[in-house]
TrEMBL record:
GO terms for molecular function: nucleic acid binding. This is Cold shock domain-containing protein. The lineage of its organism: Bacteria, Pseudomonadati, Bacteroidota, Cytophagia, Cytophagales. CDD domains: CSP_CDS. It comes from the Bacteria. It comes from Fibrella rubiginis.
Length: 65
């Protein structure tokens, strides 16, 4: 799993971005990739990355304490 920090997440629209710790890239995250978790800006998270229709997507996202 990769780690990063939530840069932005719009709960009403159901999407946002995570900054990957490894290379600083912005990774798109959709509410369907959260597995029921709730994330907010500046939360530390772990996630897997998959190739989506428009680029990389974070999936299996969960908060890290």
């Amino acid at each position: 799993m990769q780690t990063g920090v939530v840069k932005f997440f719009n709960e009403s629209k159901g999407f946002g971005f995570i900054v990957d710790d490894a290379d600083g890239r912005d990774i798109f995250v959709h509410i369907t990739g959260l597995n029921g978790a709730t994330i907010r800006e500046k939360d530390r998270v772990e996630f897997d990355v998959v190739e989506g229709k428009k680029g990389l997507n974070a999936v299996k996202v969960r908060k890290v304490d």
